[in-house]
Design goal:
alpha+beta, Multidrug-efflux Transporter Regulator, Chain: A, Domain 2, OB fold (Dihydrolipoamide Acetyltransferase, E2P), 2 domains, four-stranded antiparallel β-sheet, three-stranded antiparallel β-sheet, 4 helices, 27% helix, Mop_domain
C-alpha cells in the first residue's frame, strides 16, 4: 500500500500540512508512523478525500461537456504574433499553455491577470509515476 508523508500528501491535493494533520486526527485520513517514526497517510484514504473535495462535474443548469480535464487559473503571459496567440495559465502548481487564433484571444478578452479555465480533451494522455 502507498503511503505519503504529511507534506507530500498536502502538496498532492493542494491543502496545507496542518489540514492533513487535522484530517488524520479527525479520522478522515488513515494515518500512522512510517519505519522512521514520521507521520504518513495512506494513498487510498488520500484519494478518497481528494474525490470528496473535487467540485461536481456539472452544476445544475450548467453546460455539460465531454471533456473532463478542466484547470482554472490565472493568465500569466499572453503573446500575439500575427494570426496566432499563445496564452499561459498558472493553475495551482500546473502551468498550462494554449495556442489559439488572435481572433479567439480578442473574443475572450484575455490579458495577464485574467481568470480563465483550460479545458483539455486529448486522444493521448501519458501517466508518469515513480518506480517503487
Amino acid at each position: 500500500m502507498t503511503h505519503f508523508r504529511i507534506g507530500e500528501a498536502a502538496a498532492l491535493i493542494g491543502v496545507s500540512d496542518d489540514t492533513i494533520r487535522r484530517w488524520a486526527g479527525d479520522g478522515r485520513l488513515d494515518a500512522g508512523p512510517d519505519d522512521g517514526g514520521r507521520q504518513t497517510v495512506t494513498g487510498a484514504s488520500l484519494a478518497r478525500r481528494a474525490l470528496e473535495l473535487a467540485p461536481p462535474s456539472a452544476e445544475p443548469g450548467a453546460l455539460r461537456r465531454s471533456a473532463r480535464n478542466r484547470f482554472t487559473g490565472i493568465v500569466t503571459a499572453v503573446q500575439r504574433e500575427g494570426l496566432v496567440a499563445q496564452v499561459e495559465l498558472q493553475c495551482g502548481p500546473n502551468r498550462v499553455v494554449s495556442l489559439m487564433t488572435a481572433e479567439a484571444l480578442d473574443d475572450l478578452a484575455l490579458e495577464v491577470g485574467s481568470r480563465a479555465a483550460a479545458i483539455v480533451k486529448a486522444t493521448t494522455v501519458i501517466i508518469e509515476a515513480e518506480r517503487r
